[in-house]
């Protein structure tokens, strides 16, 4: 599995909802903060989008916009600073249906929102910008198709609809991250910025391919094709952490996923993520997360470990 696929697999998109929006005249809608990742595709016409009071961005037909942080935003026929509450417009519409404003006919947009869960979401999403715009073209067409397909599956459920929607959500997420990787990353650090660097991405790919291997900085530098000193400095500049710190973080994410998704013995999980004994793994896990593996699994299943994940993310930023 390639590096990006491995990361997306841990994000676990779920609970997708979708709706269309058909508008005319001088319309403007204000969306409050939301949970999850939103993706909107302009099918007909064009509009402005302003995220959290930032600079307005124009969207043409065929363009898609991804909003990963749940920030408030405004979509409008002309650039404005306020709009009608989105809840008033969308509340009467069932999932998969279409909301109408001003009679419709001049502008149409398909949108979806899905939740991302797991510790990977806690650490990956902060590295994304507040808005990702996918211009019309092959990737824009893929996103528009996926959004429309989700709306259809919600509107007209068939056998296998739940699995279809889950896979389409994965597709939307991968396309969004591909767009991010193709953009300029000046001043941006994190996992995805590392994937866009030719040398550092090789080292990251090696870590993801063999997380249980006893990696050294020198060994990872060789994978990247750089000297040890240059590699260590460049890795930290791009990812915001040391190579071995990144290795530990990835191991912990894999361990967290295994603890929640399987009944594997702790010793087996420890071995799979590169620790020679259960006690060494438990000590490293507690050092990184503040919890023992068993306590983390218990509290995560009970929905009480979110604060621990926040502490882990903050301590490793």
From TrEMBL:
PROSITE patterns noted in UniProt: HTH_ARAC_FAMILY_1, HTH_ARAC_FAMILY_2
Domain of life: Bacteria
Compositional bias of kind Basic and acidic residues: 290-301
Keyword terms, alphabetized: Activator, DNA-binding, Transcription, Transcription regulation
Signal peptide from the UniProt entry: none
Composition bias type Basic residues, residue spans: 308-317
Residue ranges, annotated region (Disordered): 290-317
Residue ranges of domain HTH araC/xylS-type in the record: 201-299
Keyword Transcription regulation on entry: yes
Pfam families: Cupin_6, HTH_18
GO molecular function: DNA-binding transcription factor activity; sequence-specific DNA binding
Full protein name: RCS-specific HTH-type transcriptional activator RclR
């Amino acid at each position: 599995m390639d590096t990006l696929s491995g990361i997306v697999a841990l994000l676990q998109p779920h609970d997708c909802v979708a709706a269309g929006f058909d508008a005319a005249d001088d319309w403007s809608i204000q969306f409050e903060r939301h949970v999850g990742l939103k993706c909107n595709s302009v099918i007909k016409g064009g509009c402005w989008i302003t995220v959290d009071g930032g600079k307005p961005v124009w969207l043409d037909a065929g363009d898609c916009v991804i909003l990963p942080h749940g920030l408030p935003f405004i979509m409008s026929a002309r650039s404005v600073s306020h709009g009608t509450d989105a809840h008033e417009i969308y509340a009467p519409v069932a999932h998969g249906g279409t909301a109408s404003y001003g009679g419709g006919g001049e502008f149409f947009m398909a949108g979806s929102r899905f939740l991302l869960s797991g510790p990977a979401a806690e650490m990956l999403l902060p590295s994304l910008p507040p808005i990702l715009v996918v211009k019309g073209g092959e990737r824009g067409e893929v996103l528009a198709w996926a959004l429309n397909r989700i709306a259809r599956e919600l509107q007209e459920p068939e056998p296998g609809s739940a699995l279809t929607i889950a896979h389409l959500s994965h597709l939307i997420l991968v396309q969004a991250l591909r767009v991010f990787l193709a953009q300029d990353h000046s001043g941006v650090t994190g996992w995805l910025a590392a994937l866009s660097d030719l040398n550092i991405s090789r080292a990251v790919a090696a870590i993801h391919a063999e997380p249980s291997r006893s990696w050294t900085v020198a060994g990872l530098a060789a994978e990247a094709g750089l000297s040890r000193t240059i590699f260590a400095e460049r890795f930290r500049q791009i990812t915001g952490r040391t190579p071995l710190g990144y290795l530990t973080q990835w191991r912990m994410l894999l361990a967290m996923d295994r603890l929640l998704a399987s009944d594997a013995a702790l010793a087996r999980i420890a071995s799979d993520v590169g620790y020679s004994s259960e006690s060494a793994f438990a000590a490293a896990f507690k050092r990184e997360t503040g919890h023992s593996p068993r306590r983390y699994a218990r509290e995560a299943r009970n929905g009480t470990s979110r604060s621990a994940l926040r502490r882990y993310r903050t301590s490793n930023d």
